[in-house]
Amino acid sequence: MRVLLGALLCGAVIGAPVFAPADEVPYIQTPSNVVDAMLAIAEVGPKDYLVDLGSGDGRIVIAAAKQYGARGLGIDYDQSLIAESRVNAARAGVSDRVRFLQQDIFLADFHDATVVTMYLLPEVNLEIRPQI
To answer: What is the pTM (predicted TM-score) of this model?
Structure first.
């Protein structure tokens, strides 16, 4: 399994994960250039099943499906972002290849993933590491 930490690609993350209630952490979108770099470095392809932890508006999962033909799963704590992700996937024409689940990333099962992406705070990356 390939694991991509967005924080490693852009230095220290000036943002926060999207896996906790809105009053605990803000939602920060992964910049498009970081999404592109993450997917290129991971060499995502049509045989991949990408799981994005703290998926926000779904942009990483959607880009993997649209640009590389991968299947994907986005996991986020915020139900409104999950709903937005589903709308975004439909607009991008990839709803048949992606799913979005409202769930705590620390309780998620992503053992089938060939690529795991996350754009989270460094301490969260360390905390979730044993599950990967």
So the answer is: 0.82
